[in-house]
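Anyone else keep sequences and structure tokens together like this?

Example one:
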Amino acid sequence: MNIVDDINNALNYIEENICEEIPLELISEQAHLSAFYFQRVFHIVCGYSLGQYIRWRRLTLAGEELRLNNLKVIDVALKYGYESPDSFAKAFVKFHGFLPSAVNDNKNSLRSFEKLSLDFCNKDGFFMKCVIELKPKISLVGHGERVVFDNYGINEKFEATQQHWINSREEQALMKKRFTDNQTRIWYDVYLDFAENGFRHYIAVEDNKSVDSINLERLSVESGLYAIFKTSCCESPENEWKSVMQTALLDWLPNSDYVLSQRPQLNKVIYSNDVSKRFMEIWIPIEEA
């Protein structure tokens, strides 16, 4: 059995116990993974946290029960783990867009988040080559923001970071002044402080000079061991990011002698004016199992 099957076993376990309190440790046991590793892999591969997935499944099922059965809101709220009608109503409105008491008037507007089933197949072998490297400490200057997931979506992490790139053009212009080679510019994405509802994302360049702008800050990434995967050389290597991450976490890592570390994850983007030399390195923090 591979890691995809193991995670699907955990998803089946969640579905069978969706109305119960489900400790993370019991869920991760179904996948034969540590709680930390299961949460991290789930979040990266799916684009949302395990807690969000369970919450959206419960709210989907709660909406269906209110639509099909003549049940009291408080009974449905208690069934799906909410301590009060008020907390249930707040979550219900955020997910469905209207109060649970108004379901009969909005039956066709109920949102649905179906049970997840992973079906992963690595079809592209070019990015499977991996280099294990102990990286020295890196001194960076960049712009950071907290990325919060308000909605679900498998590409949400990618889309959220891309939005940060779009919204920080002024800060990037300041960082560009630190480049000594305008033909090939090296940018970093840095992901850290992972939590259930998001993470902190930095767009940065390598530099140890002082910071003279309130919009930029210094950031140090300590020395550590990384599994480094490389995209193909192309005009937009960031479009391969999701495929590389899925392959690394669902294919390479389970068959290696390493596990995920809690250190920051990085993307190193080699942005050359020559498209044939433009690519991205994905640095996955690891430690020996």
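And example two:
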Amino acid sequence: MASFFCTYSYSGQRHGPPNAPTGWRCNGCFEIQDTMQKFFLRERNMLSVVMLNVLVIFLQGCGLENSVMGLIDILCSVIFVIEMVVKHRAYGLRGYWRDGWNILDGTVTLLTLPALLVYFVPTADSMRILIALRALRVLKTFRAARHFPNIKEIWSGFKLALRQSAGFLVGYFVVTVVVAMLNSALFGTVAPQYFATPLDAIYTVFQLFTVEGWYDIPNAVVGNMDPVWVHIVRTYFCALLIGGGIIGMSLINSIFVDALAADNNDDVKYKLDGIKAELEANQRQLEERLVELQQAISGLKKDR
């Protein structure tokens, strides 16, 4: 059967507009829907749109503002919204929001939609809230993360490493806070730019532990101190640098890296165990064949 615009085929269910015959579907509409679903569910296509949008945002941030850039940004945002709709129809509401990467994509898409008001509100340049919303477009770059090679394995390894090193990280943070409070009490009046409050001291101690301009801190503390105290203070900060910076940070890195590699080591061990079992099975088969061959040779000798 056919109408002026569409052709219909029997499917046993109602499809298409209300005037379509019951049990018939519109072939043209079905083909369009199928094509859209294939396009938006193909990760490579969406990665291309994401990278194009990131490039546009980067160029706009560099001062290359024109109507073409704005139009591309709007079109990319519309494509992301259509992608959400298509995936909701394909996976269902629960199925879509159950996947962690879909949660990231959907949240970023919804958060960045208000930024489009910048293109339609004439006084947007004078409205701070819209300018702030426009900055949210940068979140779209996070959508590219799901397309990194082996990102799921990397993420699972990261979570495992974080769980295994959580205790040491908490202990390291506690030590940092204790040292910061001690330094705030000792040097708060001598170097207020670094140790005025415990919060300032925490940041300073973290800067010291990361070996970032650490020598400026003791130099600001010693000031016009007695030469003896100058050497004591510098020795104290050198000890903090060695203990918290060199040794502490090295331990954190080693624990975290070992935990990240543990998952890969388990896979290698599992494969090696499989190879070992296969070799043992082949060895047993060879021994059995050797015994059979020896028995056959013995039988031939007896017959002679």
